[in-house]
Design brief:
Blueprint (H helix, E strand, L loop, with lengths): L7 H26 L5 H4 L14 H11 L1 E5 L13 E7 L5 H6 L6 H11 L3 E4 L3 H6 L3 H13 L5 H4 L4 E6 L29 E5 L14 E4 L5 H11 L23
Parallel strand pairs: 2-3, 2-4, 4-5, 5-6
Antiparallel strand pairs: 1-6
Amino acid sequence: MREFKIDFNKALKPTLIIYLAIFVVGIVMSFVWGVDLDINFSGGTKISYAYTGEIADKDIKEVADKAMTLVKNTQDIFPISPEKYKRVLLVDVKGTEGGFGALIGAQGPKPSQVVKEMLEKEGFEVSIWESPMDKVMQLPVEERRAAIGSVYAAKRPITELTDNYDLIINLAIVNPNTDQRIQWPASKGTPDIPFYINEVPTIFISVQCPFHLADVPQVKTYINAYDNKDVTFDALVEKMLGRSEFKGVSPVDAFCGLIDTQY
């Protein structure tokens, strides 16, 4: 068998000369023509807009009025009124808390607090649901283990809702994260999981992500508000009270391509 031997040392010198020549040419061209950074380094195309005029309040209100979308309504619930639904329970529905989403997500007071004040001015008696886990986290550390066990072990009877409330409104404010999905608690029979839609009239409202029907396909009335600005909540209450029609047309498939979200 013949043996082949390659003398790498013999080719080393000319190889280095060629490499250095290419390197020098590249440096010279960079100084002459400059360097265009790839999108991975520059962060993509940057476009700046400037607006020197003023945005009138009426224009902002018009946008909120036209954007509000009644995606689903298979029950005769509107308009709501203190005569029909005197006792209202507001429930904040959450996603993953903290992290990057908390920095770039919605700011300001909880939607339930804002809507509570608005509905009370209209004559409703309004309560805000406080999660058992939120109460547990307010306890001293040494008391939390026993308290958590009682939360997960007990199941609350449906009569706690049917006997005390005429209407339940779920307000989902889920900040962006690795996903933007609702995170359900592990507790049983609590109103932050809408298992009661057939016993208590229920309205589900998303004030950020428009795709929450995938997580609550059972709800009969679903509204996308798109943001949590005061002007948006004003428009929301006006529409629920029947003083203004829902005019919004969903810009996305709010049914998420699923059959069960539509019924």
